[in-house]
């Protein structure tokens, strides 16, 4: 980040905090409604309706079933034409068998808190600009934001922010890896395994050979790269040459640039295994999770608001440099796709869970009062940061300049 940026006045900060505080009980009910009715990937009908109806009843313009997904929505609000556009992402999908063990109910209500705080400011002060709440389904395993991005979501926005609960720490930014999943299908030829094996083409052999070759590749991967996979099907009976085998694999790397370098080393393994066994193979690449490109300008401002005005002790909110060392995440987030389209951050807030995300302990904490209050505080900070995007030209220019430089470095900038 360049020069230290001016923060909003004490009166404006108080107005945003009080707006969210006045709505805390209603937001709590929304959070619990989502939590108590967990819905899986791309089936989030209740959550989508609950949030989009709530915004529409406040006077927002809402479109449902947007950007290629039935349970996605885009809600917009403005009072004057012109100005910049900021977006808050809402998530509301749950995990199979574990409900909201990743706390997406908190993400949704934190973003709603930010949105209504800015709504109030724009109305009370007649400020130009547009606020967007983007309902984003299928974060867990589905890469929902990647699908939405490929269909035009977030284009033309000036900034997009969201926040995610974590076990016992908070950060102003989130760093994740890039990941891409592929479903592999080998097609062979069935035959009697004892009477006429020469007539068969063994799809089980093909996928086992591919799996073994991937194991050989692993020892030559760069630090931070990894490959995971499992065999889903490889035959039904021992006396029949398997004519079909299927597996699911994923490749990970620190950045999309590195992931693109890994893919050409990984992909030919399956064609070679098919050729060696006389089979054919199909590769279906799905659910791309791009790495999160955190915008330092936004993240530094988020931290300043938290520490200077919202009651967080400095030691509870690490610096950007400390965050990169201490809290570089081995997992993935589909927010990465947003961060390659416009400047963004995915901050993190502690919910004091007894275990990591995707656990029973984390699920229990996600419905608690402490987690709710921290989600709203994160919503306050995100509202203030996005108000800076709308009203502070110098801040917005610094943010955009940094984004352009990051995209050029990634080979993704298109003027």
Topology summary:
Layout: H1 10-22, H2 24-35, H3 45-57, E1 61-64, E2 73-77, E3 85-90, H4 104-125, E4 130-135, H5 144-150, E5 159-166, E6 178-187, H6 203-218, E7 226-233, E8 244-253, H7 256-266, H8 268-277, E9 280-289, H9 296-309, H10 320-326, H11 335-339, E10 344-350, H12 360-366, H13 369-391, H14 393-410
Parallel strand pairs: 3-4, 3-5, 5-10
Antiparallel strand pairs: 1-2, 2-4, 6-8, 6-9, 7-8
Supply the key terms.
four-stranded antiparallel sheet, six-stranded mixed sheet, 43% helix, 10 strands, alpha/beta, 415 residues
Overview of this structure, please?
With 415 residues, the protein is an alpha/beta fold. The protein contains 14 helices and 10 strands. The protein has helices spanning 10-22, 24-35, 45-57, 104-125, 144-150, 203-218, 256-266, 268-277, 296-309, 320-326, 335-339, 360-366, 369-391, 393-410; strands spanning 61-64, 73-77, 85-90, 130-135, 159-166, 178-187, 226-233, 244-253, 280-289, 344-350. A hairpin with an 8-residue loop joins strand 1 (61-64) and strand 2. The longest helix has 23 residues, at 369-391. It is elongated. The two termini are 22 Å apart.
